[in-house]
C-alpha cells in the first residue's frame, strides 16, 4: 500500500501489504498534532489523488502510457509536489509494472515507455527546481550493483536526497569494484548504498562491503534498495547490510 497524509496530502511511505498497489491514508510527522481531529472529510480528500493514480494504472493495463504534459497538468491541479509525484506515484507504479512484466501481463515496450515518461518528468523537475550540486564531502554514496542497468530509481533517489538537503553522490551505471572502493576511500561517507535489481547481484555487493570494511575510514553503514529489495529479498544478518524499501528509510543511517 502507498501511504499518503490525509491532512497535507504528502507522500509518507509504502507499507504492508507491499504487493497491493493502492493509496491509503495516514498521518505524516508534521501533521501528528492533528491526529485526534482526523475526520471522514480528511479521508475523502484523498479521493481525487486515488482517481489520478488509478487513471495512470488503467492506462498501463491498457498498454497506454500517460502523456508527460497531461501528468504535469493533473498533478499541479491536485497540488501534488514533484517529490511526492515521483516517490508516491511513479516509483510504486514502476514496481507494479515490473511485477506485471514478470507475469507476462505487460510488454517490455510498455515498461520502456513508462520509464521514459518518468525519466522525462524527473528531468523536468530538476530543470525547474533549484537543486544544489553534490557536496564535496557527501555523507551518502549510492551505486548501481553489477549488471543492474535499471537506473531510473537512482535518478529519483538523487533528486530526493538533493531536495531533502542530504549530501549524496550517485552513480547511475555499474562501476568496477576497484572504482567503487576508490570512491569510498576518497569520500569516506557515513553510508554506502547499492541498488539491486536481481538477487544474484548481491554477491558482488557483499564482496564490496567486506572490502570496504578494511579501508582506513570505512563507512558506518551499508544499505541496499531497488527492485529486488522491494520484492522481498532476504539478507543474511551476518552481512551487516540493511534493506531499505523506501528512500526515507535511508535517512535513519545518516
Fill in the keyword field for this structure:
five-stranded parallel beta sheet, 254 residues, three-stranded mixed beta sheet, alpha/beta, 2 domains, Rossmann fold, 8 strands
Summed up, the domain count is 2
Say how many strands there are.
8
Q: What is the C-alpha radius of gyration, as a whole number of Å?
A: 19 Å
Distance between the termini: 26 Å
The overall pLDDT average reads 87
Strand order in the largest sheet: 5-4-6-7-8
The fraction of residues in strands falls at 5-15%
Strand/helix succession: EEEHHHHHEHEHEHEHEH
Overall 3D form: globular
Largest sheet data: 5 strands, parallel
User: What structural class do you assign from the helix and strand content?
Assistant: alpha/beta
Structure report:
The mean pLDDT is 87. This protein is α/β, with parallel strands linked by helices and 254 residues long. The chain has two domains: 2-128, no CATH class; 140-253, Rossmann fold (3-Layer(aba) Sandwich). It starts with a strand and ends with a helix. It is built from ten helices and eight strands. Helices cover 45% and strands 13% of the residues. The strands form two sheets. A five-stranded parallel β-sheet has the order 5-4-6-7-8, with helices on both faces. It has a three-stranded mixed β-sheet with strand order 2-1-3, with helices on one face. α5 (108-128) runs parallel beside α6 and α7 (177-187) packs across α8 (202-212). α8 (202-212) links the parallel β6 (191-195) and β7.
SSE blueprint and pairings:
Elements: E1 2-5, E2 11-14, E3 23-26, H1 40-44, H2 47-61, H3 68-78, H4 82-102, H5 108-128, E4 140-144, H6 152-163, E5 168-170, H7 177-187, E6 191-195, H8 202-212, E7 221-225, H9 227-230, E8 242-243, H10 247-250
Parallel strand pairs: 1-3, 4-5, 4-6, 6-7, 7-8
Antiparallel strand pairs: 1-2
Helix pairs in contact: 4-5, 4-6, 5-6, 7-8
